[in-house]
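Narrative progress, year one. The postdoctoral researcher (J.K.) led the effort to move from monomer predictions toward full complexes, under supervision of the PI. The following entry was the first complex the group processed end to end, covering 657 residues in total.
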Amino acid sequence: MTDTAPLKEEAYRPPRSQWWDVWDQFSTHRGALIGTIVFLTIVFAVLIGPYLWTIEPTFIDIRARNQSPSFAHPLGTDQLGRDMLARMMAGGKVSIAVGFTAMLLSLLLGTLIGVLAGYFRRLDGPLMRLTDLFLALPLLPLLLVMVMLFRETLSARFGPETGVFILIVVAIGITSWMQTARIVRGDVLALKEREFVLAARSIGTPSRRMITRHVLPNVLSPVMVSATLGIANAIITESALSFLGLGFPPDFPTWGRLLFDAVDYLQQYPERVLWPGLAISFTVLSVNYMGDGLRDALDPRIRGR
Amino acid sequence: MFDTRTGRKLVEVRNLKMHFPIYAGLLRRRVGEVKAVDDVSFDIYEGETLGLVGESGCGKSTCGRAVLRLYDITSGSIWINGDEIGEADFHSLRRLRPTMQMVFQDPQASLNPRMTVARIISEPLDEHTRLSRAEKNERVFDLMDAVGLNRDFANRYPHEFSGGQRQRIGIARALALNPKFIVCDEPIAALDVSIQAQVVNLLEELQAKLGLTYLFISHDLSMVRHIADRVAVMYLGKVVELAPRDALYATPKHPYTEALLSAVPEPDPTIETRKKHILLKGDVPSPANPPEGCNFCTRCPKVMDICRKVEPPTFEVAPGHQVACHLYSETTHETAGETAAAEAHKSIQQGE
């Protein structure tokens, strides 16, 4: 602890942005750093890789099917002779995009509904009953109906790939926000009774700034946790949908699709299950570690420990 | 002593009622209400400190919060600095907020754990002023100087401070907008005894320097004696006695005040052993279901028949000394003077 007089110029230093403290703490969290590096590596490989490895993921070379890893095909080829590395990179782009967007959507919905329900007493009943309703809905039939109803319209409007992407992201997003909403509502209810909220009210802070300044920063930890878990969930749900034939077209690679295609050849070519499985696991794990580090870094009480 | 007759009334509270509804049953029907503050009236003069004392759960804090309109009051009127705020809507209230501020009981809970000290203190400035960033920082540093916090603490978080320092942060926040009136809601109750004196002295210093007016809520009678100019005693949602400090401590009129004061320990053991303690029997009745007549009739050592039937009005037994008790009723409306009341009081004491 530095004391008083001799540090004249330091004593006058202006209040520093909180984000520097957050970065300081985040960079001391070893798991978070490794997670970030792994995640960035995967993202770069998926984004830049196709420019370096120029084989088309849908190019069928029937004579080279079912090959083991070699220099020509580092990850081998599938039953139609398509290059696995190219398919992994193309699939990763879709899977990560779906995972992130769906997570963001469900997080946004969940936090919004949770905060509104917790903060405004009048909205609590209706919004929480809505949450219960969504929790009680059987997921797969609902998704089936959604795909049935909207697939054609969306495909016609945005093209088959973007259309299905929007459909899947929305489907996953609006069926997975309920847990977040419940957790956030509980936390907001407790926070609302804390004295610092009363103090802010005695200053005359209006509700919207009360929420953004006092409520949201304090519910960040549970939101962060559900976010990291949400990515994993979204990637896996997407693969389940693809498997059921409800997702992307069969020749369109995603990690989930690759995984399920490879399951048929599990006995003969186990490495084909391994690649997408490993990719999904590493992505989810690295995101979890990043979320962990971020949550710690955002909490000033844990910071500096 | 502070002369209440010459000062200007800064705060006028008339018939303030704060009732919290109780809902029960399957249909959540309203089955009753907790009368946390029931028909309270008092004035606070500019520059004085009004102490508000009473035991736990008697409605002190609710009263303080209701005066600042942190609750929607059930009925009554509140005038602060010439503005009626009892009925004011959010926007006109927001405009009036800078004149009235509050220091909270628990300094840990009243500071947002995710904001730095600088942000906490500048929050009122963000809300009500259009200062530039540099001016805000300057103001924050000035406030930190005023409450005796090192400027270097500006980037720290509340959990890194001791209780006394946190309370200083709370006081700095309350001072940020140059208020006239501050409600101190048990500002020292959560602090160590050694720190209590520091904080109380700081409050007194600031009052002298900035001409502040305090409503000082506390259950610590000796601390109230130290800081307050006038003292109001609350029991079960009502003000039972309101008097200048010296008069209240020297000649308490209401039996409840007597009991409360007799419970204050005396530092001198010889006096302490000789002192007669008035022990109140029983418990405070529920504010959801107060007794008929006088609220204190279930525990009063001098209870009379009338107390169980009629609610006592407020009598002025001496200039500025008001008491709500039937003991003073026969004499006061004949000779509305100090002597008669004092005699009545004496005769009752001898009669025991």
